[in-house]
Amino acid sequence: MKPLFLFPYWGRYLGYFLVVVHIPIVLYKKQLMGMHGDGTADGIFNGRHLFFMSTTLLMAIGLFIAAFSKEKIEDEQIVRLRLDSLQWSVYVNFLFLIVSLIFSTDTEHILFLNLLVPLVFFIIRFRWKIFQNNRLIKE
């Protein structure tokens, strides 16, 4: 069975690299903004918004590539695990979305959660299921 719409196997490492590059940039910028104020300005193209857009897109693209990259051996069982993990990630995303809509008024926070939680949870659950599967095979 040939999977459609998956990135090559090496795309996972590219995606993880983009996510790892994103983290120190955001931490440094938050530290810098704490010292020099938040630099608010009028309009959509202010420095704070452009930084938020670029770093969020960098992380989202990295997670997307990492989540939807082929495995070395892509068989029906991997496809089933991928589908099951995707279903669980949608459930968790809606749970977080409902809770954040009830308890938060910050739309930037809700957008960030809604964009990244499904990908992060999908990757974690998919990798965990593959780990469990490999452990069962070795026993």
UniProtKB/TrEMBL annotation:
Transmembrane segments: 12-29, 49-68, 88-104, 110-128
Domain of life the protein comes from: Bacteria
Keywords from the UniProt entry: Membrane, Transmembrane, Transmembrane helix
Identification of the protein by name: Uncharacterized protein
Organism field: Mucilaginibacter ginsenosidivorax
